[in-house]
Specification:
Elements (H helix, E strand, L loop, with lengths): L2 H32 L18 H10 L3 H30 L3 H21 L3
């Protein structure tokens, strides 16, 4: 492994570490700002309503509910980190001209994208 690849791996590791810290901080900040003392926090959960992510985010945006939007931003950052790692690994294998492992990375990336697409009712 040459020095460029080692530097790229180190950059990816630092990026993922910082990404987890940023995501955790966003989620924590959103949760802290969403706490309303003196109210029953379970009151709005007495009935379940299935709402798509798109409608949920647009309703939060229109209501200017920044605390929940910040929490969602943290979740989006957290979900995107494994995808970023797989893409970066693909670039490493492409640079090494290791095409069988590159095909495996593309299969994993396809699986991740498919699981996200099937998991959300957008």
């Amino acid at each position: 492994m040459n020095n460029d690849l080692i530097q790229l791996e180190l950059f990816i590791a630092k990026l993922l570490r910082k990404g987890v810290i940023v995501a955790g901080a966003l989620i924590l900040i959103g949760w802290i700002f969403s706490v309303k003392f003196g109210q029953n926090i379970y009151e709005k959960f007495h009935t379940y309503q299935e709402i798509s992510l798109k409608h949920s985010l647009s309703a939060l945006w229109l209501a200017k509910s920044w605390s929940y939007l910040i929490s969602y931003a943290g979740l989006i950052v957290l979900i995107s980190l494994p995808i970023l790692r797989v893409i970066a690994t693909g670039f490493i294998f492409l640079k090494q001209r290791n095409y069988p492992l590159l095909l495996l990375v593309l299969a994993v990336l396809s699986g991740l994208i498919l699981s996200i697409a099937l998991g959300f009712a957008i």
